[in-house]
Write a structure and sequence with these properties.
The complex is a heterodimer of chains A (about 525) and B (about 280). Chain A is of the alpha+beta class and about 525 residues long. In chain A, about 15% of the residues lie in helices and about 25% in strands. Chain A folds into 2 domains: about 140 residues, Immunoglobulin-like; about 280 residues, Purple Acid Phosphatase, chain A, domain 2, CATH 3.60.21. In chain A, strand 14, helix 6 and strand 15 form a beta-alpha-beta unit. Chain B folds into 2 domains: about 90 residues, Immunoglobulins (Immunoglobulin-like); about 180 residues, Galactose-binding domain-like (Jelly Rolls). The chains are: A alpha+beta (about 525), B mainly beta (about 280). Chain A: InterPro entries: Metallo-depent_PP-like (IPR029052), PhoD-like_MPP (IPR018946), PhoD-like_sf (IPR038607), PhoD_N (IPR032093), Phospholipid_Metab_Enz (IPR052900), TAT_signal (IPR006311).
Chain lengths: ~525, ~280
């Protein structure tokens, strides 16, 4: 099963392809599970939300699409009929699909908003592939993806982009227009793919668009979350980046609700009601992301933390700092409750998993792909001290345990990739943040937002605050993304910005700073 | 509709003035996954769920039906569970429920400021003159029924310590009125608001002739009542709320009485009207 095919079907063959013995079929996952076949009746133009791939492993990758001929249908079902539909896919070594190596079938069901997540196995390590879907007589746009290098193999380079915080209503996704032209192996998305806020004249800063009244409501039900993902995913630049590069994503708070912590809402919602909201939010997240079935939610729970390897070059630990964290401390006094040794932002099980991952890592670089700022940031520019209880500063003991593990296991090249704050920031991770002369044990790259907060400016009212922390080496308040190039010798990070996003998507991109982190010498050396 | 999706159970309600809070119990909310609960309602007990009778959708196990007016109203409700595939449960209910009647309907006015009409436009500085408040009312309002007038002497906005524009301090309003004789039964204070601050509406400490009678936590509003004063306007963003509570007969005296409203916590609230009523 799933041996590379010698047959090289053309587009007409793909249209005729159905019910092949070598198909992998299951409820949206493509697993060979003898699932009930779906139908072939599909409304016209069902691929309006695009295609995507993600979580590459050496011999497999997960593909994604969600059938939605009417993406903004207010019931959240995208204009699809309430019955399962067969979705066929094929994977080729070339863009013209002359060398198809895998094909299969997944069932798009209304339970998962007609999304499919086939995991294509049996691919060759470290290779580029192309894929497409068919539903009924409709064929999707072609996507490009790639597999990870073979385990432990020597790898010369990993190029990646970082993105986060895409408040569609605050501006155009100009950053994605430029990112789509970059030659990168992976996109790390670091949280806030959607926002739950009502969209109305007060926050619709993206010019040239309008939204109906169904969007002017705080998102809490599944149909609302589905509609919100559909709205954001209608952006052509976002679709293009998804189609061109495999994504490795994690969430932050706004995929559910601002500043939530585990089952605790900050808006007075009972735990029972909020768990139900979290369940539908997690379901919608899964439906709209290229995630493996190991992340399929179970009620209000969803396993999102996971690990990927890029040969011997990098181990990537994708973290979830929302689902298991302790609630906000009742007293946020600096040095008080937030330093309680019992507090955790990862939760006990994920802490243990990360500890073991670091312990066994043999990679040159250990990357934490995560949400909220890891470095200590004192927010009082005067003699006092104030810390954010929403970031790792609210869980100092957890950070201490992480840093202790890094030192204990001799992790020489720790890199945290972070989002959340809508600003570009580069910081050094210190053994003792209160002692600038203490050892630097890692590097943190914080990417700004794609859309959130609108145009922005190079400096703003937070610039002084951030730069007053001596381990913070860079700050910029505009929209953009970060490009990283990792080799066995060094990590080069380029902070990209666009000058405006509200008016239109025409702003050019520029590099506002470039840093080098030498392997074996944590920290930041500014080159530009 | 489908037997696969379980219907909710234990429908109950609580009636307030102008509102009915409906509650229920969810059964197996994760298998299949509940998309939302849809609440349908009508004054007609024989109604069927339809887009025309949809009151609202929620992921919670409760929904507030608002805007029912000050008179007592009886409605019938049915709750449908919609699952992730778009399937419906059988409708639960119907639940017969009633709102409470306002004393402004059932009682006799003793002394009032303004009209109970979901508008604050007749009050001083309305609809958006709050910046003049510190100069016009440096000591808060002091209103004498029968002498003072709403448009000159009772500001539409009652600030709190969270309002920097009003000095970041507590503000006290006084409402003076005369009674020909001390009442044998409790009277009722009706304080209708057209809006409050969305996140810090604060509390009002109410006393009568020096006797504390209530410490009221106000409901969250929409933070627009400082700028507009008509909650009946189509599409109005204002979020009105109602406070009605007894004024004990033991706190009232023959002759001059003074009700004191002290805003010592939170931000402003915006008045619709205020009054003392005899509920008999």
């Amino acid at each position: 099963m799933n041996e590379p095919s010698q047959w090289t079907p053309n587009r007409r063959d793909f249209l005729a392809l159905a019910g092949l013995s070598a198909t992998a079929v299951a409820l949206g996952s493509g697993a060979p599970a003898g699932a009930t076949p779906g139908g072939d009746r599909v409304p016209a133009d069902p691929f309006r939300l695009g295609v995507a791939s993600g979580d590459p492993e050496p011999t497999s990758v997960v593909l994604w699409t969600r059938l939605a001929p009417d993406p903004l249908a207010e019931d959240g079902h995208g204009g699809m009929p309430a019955h399962p539909v067969d979705v066929h896919y094929e994977v080729a070594e070339d863009e013209r699909f002359a060398r198809v190596v895998r094909r299969g079938r997944a069932v798009a069901s209304p339970e998962l908003a007609h999304s499919v997540h086939p995991e294509v196995e049996g691919l060759r390590p470290g290779r580029e592939y192309f894929y497409r879907f068919r539903a009924g007589g409709e064929i999707s746009p072609v996507g490009r993806t790639r597999t990870a290098p073979a385990p432990g193999s020597g790898v010369g380079r990993l190029s990646f982009a970082m993105a986060s915080c895409q408040a569609w209503y605050h501006g155009h996704f100009t950053a994605y227009r430029h990112l789509a032209e970059e030659d990168v192996d992976l996109v790390f998305f670091l949280g806030d793919y959607v926002y739950e806020y009502a969209i109305n004249s007060g926050n619709l800063w993206r010019q040239g668009v309008s939204v109906g009244p169904a969007h002017d409501a705080t998102v809490r039900t599944l149909e609302q979350y589905r509609l919100r993902y559909a709205l954001f995913k209608t952006d052509p630049h976002l679709q293009r980046v998804h189609a061109r590069v495999p994504w490795v994503g994690t969430w932050d708070d706004h995929e559910v609700q601002n500043n939530y912590a585990d089952a605790h809402s900050q808006y007075g919602i009972s735990i029972e009601d909020f768990e139900r909201q979290r369940a539908v939010a997690y379901r919608a997240y899964y439906e709209n992301m290229p995630l493996r079935r190991s992340s399929l939610p179970d009620g209000p729970d969803m396993r999102l933390y996971r690990r990927l390897s890029w040969g011997s070059l990098a181990d990537v630990h994708v973290l979830d700092t929302r689902q298991y964290r302790d609630d906000f401390p009742t007293d946020s006094t600096a040095g008080g409750e937030h330093t309680d040794p019992g507090r955790s932002i990862l939760g006990e099980r994920q802490e243990r998993w990360l500890d073991q991952g670091l312990r066994h890592s043999r990679a040159t670089w250990n990357v934490l792909a995560q949400q909220v700022v890891l470095a200590q940031i004192d927010r009082d520019t005067g003699p006092g001290r104030t810390f954010s209880m929403d970031q790792w500063d609210g869980f100092t003991a957890n950070r201490d345990r992480l840093f202790a593990a890094v030192r204990r296991y001799g992790i020489g090249n720790l890199v945290a990739l972070t989002g959340d704050i809508h600003r570009h920031v580069a910081a050094e991770l210190k053994a003792d943040f209160d002692d600038p002369d203490s050892a630097t044990i890692g590097t943190e790259l914080v990417t700004t937002s794609v859309g959130s907060d609108g145009d922005g400016a190079p400096t703003d009212r937070y610039t002084e605050l951030w730069l007053a922390n001596p381990h913070v080496k860079f700050y910029d308040g505009r929209r953009g993304y970060v490009l990283g190039t990792m080799t066995p010798e060094r990590l080069t990070s380029e902070f990209k910005i666009v000058d405006y996003v509200q008016r239109d998507d025409a702003a050019p991109v520029s590099t506002v700073a470039r840093f080098v982190t030498e392997a074996g010498r944590p920290g930041l050396k500014r080159e530009a | 509709m489908s037997g696969i999706v379980p219907e909710v159970g234990d429908l109950t309600f609580e009636g307030g003035i102008g509102r009915i809070d409906i509650r229920w119990r969810a059964r197996r909310p994760y298998r299949p996954l509940v998309d939302h609960f849809a609440v349908y309602g009508s004054p007609d007990p024989r109604f069927r769920p339809s887009p025309e009778t949809l009151i609202g959708k929620t992921i919670d196990t409760r929904l507030r039906h608002e805007g029912l007016g000050p008179e007592r109203r009886t409605w019938y409700y049915r709750v449908v569970t919609v699952d992730a595939a778009g399937r419906w449960s059988r409708p639960a209910g119907p639940l017969r429920a009633s709102s409470a009647e306002s004393v402004t309907v059932s009682g006799r006015p003793v002394a009032v400021v303004g009209e109970f009409d979901r508008k604050g436009l007749e009050l001083a500085l309305s609809p958006n003159g709050y910046a003049q408040y510190p100069a016009r009312f440096p000591d808060g309002a002091d209103y004498l029924h029968g002498v003072s007038t709403p448009g000159a002497d009772w500001p539409y906005l009652h600030p709190g310590p969270a309002d920097r524009w009003a000095g970041s301090r507590a503000h006290t309003f006084r409402f003076r009125f005369d009674l020909p004789s001390a009442p044998e039964a409790d009277l009722v204070l009706a304080m209708w608001l057209i809006d409050t601050h969305a996140s810090i509406p604060g509390r009002v400490e109410i006393s009568c002739n020096g006797t504390a009678i209530a410490d009221v936590a106000l409901e969250n509003g929409a933070t627009r009542g400082s700028l507009e004063g008509d909650a009946t306007a189509p599409g109005s963003p204002l979020k009105p709320s109602v406070v009605e509570l007894p004024v004990p007969a033991s706190a009232l005296v023959t002759g001059r009485n003074v009700l004191t409203l002290h805003k010592g916590e939170g931000s402003w609230h915006a008045y619709d009207a205020l009054g003392v009523f005899d509920p008999a």
